[in-house]
Amino acid sequence: MPEPQITMQGVSHLALVCSDMARTVDFYANVLGLKLIKTVELPVGMGQHFFFDIGNGDALAFFWFPDAPPAAPGIAAPAARPDNGDLTSAVGSMNHIALQVSPDEIDDYRQLLVDRGVDCSEVVNHDDSEWTVSEEMHPGVYVRSVYFHDPDGILLELAAWTRDLDGSDVA
User: Fold this and answer.
1) How many Cα atoms are found within 13 Å in the side-chain-facing hemisphere of 6?
2) CA 131 to CA 119: how far, in whole Å?
3) SS3 for the chain, per residue?
4) Regions of the chain short of the pLDDT cut 70
């Protein structure tokens, strides 16, 4: 009889740490348009824990701790966006969050971010070429991305799959 397996149903939530919960709520709710779905005051003044709906029953969560250590770009997170600096971060770190969007909307969403004052990359066409990106859209492009930072420097990506992946995409 086969061993039982755990059946995953997606990501319940990804929990990050922010330096200012009000600023974080403003950015994720008012700039990105995510709905705040749960707020928790942690006991004995430990801080706060808030959740945003990112679709498909998944959530992006933030902790605010009054005595949290400062951010560590280049260690706990990349020091820059991939289009303007080093993407490397430490083992066990969270490099970036990619939020799924429609390929038909990604260009408009980039412009919306720019209109809202967010410094972001151009739309990046990821492919299997030597440098993994193409200036032009072609059948080998598998995902299109826009990269930007939140107010605490967390690297975010709007990602739009452009085709179904199959066995040929695994080397």
Assistant:
1) 3
2) 23
3) CCCCCCCCCCCCEEEEEECCHHHHHHHHHHHCCCEEEEEEECHHHCCEEEEEEEECCEEEEEEECCCCCCCCECCCECCCCCCCCCCCCCCCCCCCEEEECCCCCHHHHHHHHHHCCCCECCCEEECCCCCCEECCCCCCCCEEEEEEECCCCCEEEEEEECCCCCHHHCC
4) none
**What is the per-residue pLDDT for 52?**
97
CB of 149 closer than 8 Å to CB of 155: yes
64: which 2 tokens? 């605010």
Q: How far is CA 3 from CA 7, 8, 9, 80, in A?
A: 12, 16, 19, 44
Quote the pLDDT of residue 6.
Answer: 87
For the four alpha carbons of 148, 149, 155 and 156, in that order, the dihedral sign comes to negative
- Report in angstroms the alpha-carbon separations of 14 from 86, 96, 98: 23, 11, 11
Q: Residue 21 has what pLDDT? A: 96
pTM for the whole structure: 0.91
